[in-house]
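To close the chapter, one final illustration. This time we ask the reader to focus less on the individual chains and more on the assembly as a whole: which components sit near each other, and how the overall shape emerges from the parts.
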Amino acid sequence: MHSSLNPQSPPPDPTLVSRRRFLGFGIGAIGALIASALGIPLVGYAISPALKKKKEDWAEAGSVAGFQPLQPKKIEYSAFRKDGWIEETVKKSAWVILRDGGDVTVYDPRCTHLGCAYRWDESRKSFLCPCHDGVFDINGKVVSGPPPRPLDRLQAKIESGKLFIMEG
Amino acid sequence: MLDRAYQWIDDRLGIDPIIRDVVDHPVPEHVNPAIHPRSIVYCFGGLTFFIFTLLITTGIFLTMYYVPTPDHAYDSVRYITDELTLGSIVRGIHHWSASGIVIMVVLHMLRVYAQGAYKAPREMNWMVGVGLLMVVMGFGFTGYLLPWDQKAYWATTVGTKMASQVPVVGHYLLLILRGGEDLGAVTLARFYSFHIWFLPGAAVTLLGLHFLMVRRQGISGPL
Amino acid sequence: MKKDSYKMGKTEPFFPDFLFKEAIAALLFFIVLLLIVVFSHVPLESLADPTDATYIPRPEWYFMFLFQMLKYFPGELEPVAVFVLPTIGIIVLLLLPFLDRRRERRPSRRPVASAAAFFGLAGMLYLTTMAIATTPPPAPASTAKLSAAATAGKKQFQDLGCGACHQPGGGSAPDLSKIVAERDEEFIRKYLKNPKASNPNSIMPSFDSLTDEQMNHLLEYLQTLKQQ
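The assembled structure is written out below.
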């Protein structure tokens, strides 16, 4: 680069040029080796929270002994939450409906429109959202109003009289 | 291809003279280990700089998860070490490099001392070097507290307590170091701030001067 | 500009010739570093516990010599070790080029400078070695998880100030990790209630006032001090 700019200088010795090229290549190779040996752990470390599979856990949500079939009931339960290095139990709530035959349906307590808390209206046999008048039936289907989709269902099961709700 | 890209940039910025100065400056025979094997002693300064880049790189990545509060510091370090993929490698490189840089700094200083390379006209560069030694010690002292484990807490308790032995201003010095009577949240936050802002700033400034002076004065001659 | 002149000899350009050698040195260092990182676990002890006065602090190895110096300057002389000597050391180091102004550079012809460096280094090495040799390792109990009873016992241990005398490695009282290894629980219980009954020369206070439950917790904790 340098010598080519100067027409007066004699043509460089070809063996010297190839030696310089070789050493320059060697420095590049060593640099790349160290950079990748350092870079792979750094990148792996930086992105690993994104690659971690979310751990799925059944949270115990209490006994269903007093529940009437087809009578929605709002429950509160605590679930274990892991957020990076912070491990804590958080209070959660859900709507629980016992079905005939022992099945159970659990709905996320937030309206699918904008996340308001809805309530069960016994007289109309439907869930009413006070924010924008969204109405859902007991199966979670939208009856009227702006909600774009049915109520979100949480995976749940009953084992020996106790309700378990899937986290995550 | 690379040549043409270089040409294109140089046409616009005229960087060639600066690059030429760095790249082409002649290195004298007496520091060439291929000719004189014992001139291997000249590698310690360069290695110190290499380790410094390792520490800066891994340090930047460690701040991604580390939180400097008594509530979270220990848990975030444990999370980095035990739960993140290759996190123990990243923290390990930072941890062991810290010892490595101290060793290299000492070896580099011993070479300069033994060869009397601090003598005229290089007095100023020696003093900058002593400043860099203090900065490295500062890094070691502040970094030791950050994991907030037993070793960190008690060593820093003793280390800051030592400052109170300074005549007259001792107690104020202790208060300034700890940010209060006891070692706690304020101490951790200020040690962190020093470790990742003040000291790296000082290190980069002094290193710039250190290198500039070496380029201006050239390396000291053969004995 | 003042520049010293000397024979450059057979020079080589900084890039790539000289830098190539430096790169090889860096690569070798990096390989060694990586081996250490992979084959040793990066240390992390248990969470900082400001109430645990039994913990023996150890600084990083390169501060060990300062730490050790404290032991030779007890009481009122302490400022000498932590302030006077280090300050003098730093000032001498900083002003070295002005203190040593002779042009002579060969170590063999600079006897004072060479001897100072030798004794300085030897002193630091000696202090560091002594510090490492005399500082016992941390008690294993601090890293293990304790049972509920043992945790309550640990609190008793701290509140009663047992650790002030019973230091790991032995202070003014025996190392308890040895006692629990050698004696059975009943002996220790009796001893705690009335030390003079078992050993008339004992200077340990009696802990007869503890409830049975407190005593059980304390004994439970003492068992965890046993070395694995």
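Chain C touches chain A through twelve residues (CB under 8 Å). Chain C has two domains: 49-99+109-135, 140-224. With these observations in hand, you are ready for the problems at the end of the chapter.
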